[in-house]
Write a structure and sequence with these properties.
The protein has a single domain, classed as ATP-grasp fold, B domain (D-amino Acid Aminotransferase, Chain A, domain 1, 2-Layer Sandwich), CATH 3.30.470. 32% of the residues lie in helices and 24% in strands. The chain is built from nine helices and 14 strands. Helix 8 packs antiparallel against helix 9. The longest helix has 21 residues. It is globular and about 50 Å long.
């Protein structure tokens, strides 16, 4: 479980009532579940905050309930359209997040829900996929015919799916796991899987339509949700270059660029991460990073600058407003091709 957002509580959630808090979007980044990497990407946090706020406003306009309250501008909570500066903080409603006990690598969701009651952050990520790009984990877990494709083997190039695929994975565990339906149902608690899947498809539709209007291809993404008083709301943040994969003219403009760059330039570290994740399955415990035999190296300054331009130029295009001082998206993507 990793995050590059900081989090503050203004009023704690209770068994009966939502609380209030704020996300602070940092310029840190994380890949392969490592946690915060050695570098920061300038303006990354603000670009994610702006994209997330824009998407929450779109969802609310479609009647989809969320935990979003606005962005923070000079101490006040306002709509994104009311500020001229890229925001770094987002105001949100909070649900309870009980402890998830773990013993010998086994997580006790029964104890989580006993404390959660009727107001909790659902300990799942609901993943939706419109395409299967290079690097997608779906390629290693499912055969093409299982997701509606009329081929025997996965082709090397990205593949569009005939219909979006929805999957469920763990949220609070040390290493994400994709789940079968029976286990997912128990982890979801009072929320139903059909409701969560339908909500994910609606969010996917809204983000995909906005991406299409901006000239982007929306490949996949996820939502997280809270459950309060019988209602499921979209939580965390939605439709950013960290939570979702987007491409432009066939080139990735999401965090996937940094994943693939590390695979190419730091294969020993990427291999050590994979080995540690496999090894932890055979020992008692959950901290696979302690078993990793190497750490990631910092990025070169030109790589950091290229990544920053991708985030900010992409955010400008998606929002439809030049909120950031960034090159146009064509120029940013052309430069980023050198990282492929």
């Amino acid at each position: 479980m990793t995050s590059v957002k900081d989090f503050s509580v203004e009023r704690a959630a209770t068994a009966d009532a939502l609380g209030r808090g704020r996300f602070v979007f940092t310029d840190a980044y994380s890949i392969f579940d490592w946690g915060r990497m050695p570098d920061t990407i300038p303006e990354k946090g603000r670009s994610l905050c702006a994209m997330g706020a824009h998407n929450f406003s779109l969802l609310e306009s479609e009647g989809i309930s969320t935990h979003y309250r606005g962005v923070v501008d000079d101490g006040s909570v306002v709509d994104l359209a009311e500020t001229d500066e890229p925001p770094r903080e987002m105001a949100i409603d909070l649900a309870q997040v009980p402890d998830l006990p773990v013993e010998n690598g086994t997580y006790d969701y029964g104890a989580f829900h006993a404390e959660a009651g009727d107001n909790y952050l659902i300990p799942l990520e609901i993943v939706f996929r419109n395409a299967v790009p290079r690097g997608s984990s779906l390629r290693s877990r499912r055969d093409p015919d299982e997701v509606g494709l009329d081929v025997v083997e996965w082709p090397d190039e990205p593949v569009r799916l005939p219909e979006p695929v929805v999957e469920f994975s763990t949220k609070f565990e040390e290493q994400d796991r994709y789940l079968a339906r029976e286990e997912t149902d128990a982890i979801a608690g009072r929320a139903t899987l059909d409701e969560l899947a339908a909500l994910a498809r609606e969010v996917n539709r809204v983000v995909t339509e906005r991406a299409d209007d901006a000239g982007l291809a929306h490949e996949d993404g996820k939502i997280e949700c809270l459950y309060h008083d019988g209602e499921v709301r979209v939580a965390d943040v939605v439709g950013t270059f960290d939570e979702n994969r987007f491409s432009y003219d066939g080139h990735e403009i999401s965090k996937e660029v940094l994943r693939q760059y590390h695979k190419r330039t730091q294969p020993a570290w990427v291999g050590a991460v994979s080995a540690a994740k496999e090894e932890i399955e055979n020992v008692d415990g959950t901290d696979w990073r302690a078993l990793c035999e190497s750490d990631p190296d910092p990025l070169a300054e030109d790589v950091i600058a290229t990544a920053s331009d991708l985030y900010t130029a992409g955010a400008n295009a998606y929002i439809g407003r030049k909120l950031f001082d960034a090159p146009d998206l064509d120029g940013a993507v052309e430069t980023a091709r050198t990282l492929e």
